[in-house]
Amino acid sequence: MAHVFFSFECTFSLMPDSSLHDDAVLEAPEADGFGTRAVHAGQQPDPSTGAVMTPIYQTSTYAQAAPGEHKGHEYSRVSNPTRTALEGNLASLEGAEHGIAFSSGVAGIDAIVKSLRPGDHVVATDDLYGGTYRLLREVFEPLNIQTSFVDMSDPDAVTDAFTEDTALLWVETPTNPLMRLVDIEALAERAHAHDITVAVDNTFATPYLQQPLAHGADLVLHSATKYLGGHSDLILGAVCTNSDEWAEKLRFQIKSTGAAPGPMDCFLTLRGTKTLHLRMEQHCSSARRLAQMLNAHDKVGHVRYPGLPSHPGHALAQKQMSGYGGMISFELADDEMDKALAVLDAAEVFTLAESLGGVESLIEHPASMTHASIPAEEREKIGLTDSLIRLSVGVESFEDLRDDLDRALSRV
Ligand SMILES: *Cc1c(COP(=O)(O)O)cnc(C)c1O
């Protein structure tokens, strides 16, 4: 799906789509814009009552007319109508055949890696979500699934890490928290030449800004806890894929190991995705302006935001993404942990908290919070410094966010 790249203010796609009529939205062939799918895909008025919003089917089991004769659902670990609606919605947004929802993002990652076999090898981004690192290192290494962590901004380094046992390439882009860009298409080509499955954690970008399957990935992972849910009020994960075989494996994992999301969280995620496109426009626009402000600030050192022309992945972002996202990380001019902590302490509109992707702005210190599970020497190796601060830019008034950061930085 091609939406035009926005390089300055990102508001033009908020224009109403005049080709849509109120009746006939779902079936009309032209009604396939991102916003239309965000609002409608996977859902229809409830067949039993006409309820426009998909109900929260708070049930574990379903009446059968005769043994094995049912309306598509038998037991809610396996499937549930609220979850099915969400899965259809997420699949549509990622341009995928299948969407599979999990009880959390890490449950989705776990199900993918658990589908491998002992002796298989994984190559993963070296700068990635701390929980993914912990899962690969502390849960799967003892089960003899080894992982090599590499800087994927150099595609050759990735190929060099392949062994004859490599079965999975785990990509995060933009990376967390260093905001590096990884070329999905280039890596997918190299991995597929060796029959390696390519999974992309698309949590930071969301399908509104980046569609990894269109760039050759086999699996897309989401922590819907973040932008898809969008309101910091749930934990949920999802995998989207065009592979029938992978979809079957992952559904088998949920059925067998139980990482199913509850209907309430599925409902909340569906409510969140309806406004994903609107929220992302605002996240992108405010983050871009804040990144520029930080970049010009004398208390600030290196600013990591793909929308800055100085970012090494800027050109790749323009090729691979349709906007630069709402996440920024930056170092202080004086790279000292105490000073970073003072900024966190002084921020008021930005809440000091882990996580990201909600309507509210968050500020955090990766070295002592989200990425504390990565050993200090590993952090140093990848350039995750002690003064690094990560921002999740929310949808509050831009001026208040700007003034809050400016005030906090003046304390340093
Ligand atoms: C939060 C996050 C996860 C894990 O998701 P949970 O829903 O917290 O289990 C995975 N990847 C990224 C990039 C994340 O930010």
From TrEMBL:
Keyword set includes Nucleotidyltransferase: no
Gene Ontology, cellular component aspect: cytoplasm
Signal found in the keyword field: no
Entry cofactors: pyridoxal 5'-phosphate
GO molecular function list: cystathionine gamma-lyase activity; cystathionine gamma-synthase activity; pyridoxal phosphate binding
GO BP, one annotated term: transsulfuration
Modified residues (N6-(pyridoxal phosphate)lysine): K226
Keywords: Pyridoxal phosphate
Family: Belongs to the trans-sulfuration enzymes family.
Protein name stated in the entry: Cys/Met metabolism PLP-dependent enzyme superfamily
Source organism of this protein record: Salinibacter ruber (strain DSM 13855 / M31)
Origin organism lineage: Bacteria, Pseudomonadati, Rhodothermota, Rhodothermia, Rhodothermales
